[in-house]
Write a structure and sequence with these properties.
single chain, 67 residues, mainly alpha
């Protein structure tokens, strides 16, 4: 499981806990955690895309140098 998927799973878990929580303060804490994990998932996705792009560029440079 990728970090992005892990963070999305955690966000969903905290959203579910928030929906089932009767205490307002605790519910807000769960909602905050869910939001923070969603942001982490977005950043992990962005980082994965950046890494993939850099890897592709490096591989293309290697191929050009081998010719």
């Amino acid at each position: 499981m990728s970090m992005r998927d892990n963070y999305r799973t955690r966000a969903a878990e905290f959203h579910a806990r928030a929906r089932n929580e009767s205490n307002e303060m605790t519910r807000r804490q769960y909602e905050s955690l869910a939001s923070q994990y969603s942001l982490l998932a977005e950043k992990a996705d962005h980082n994965d895309n950046q890494t993939s792009s850099r890897t592709a560029v490096t591989q293309n440079r290697t191929r050009v140098n081998l010719k």
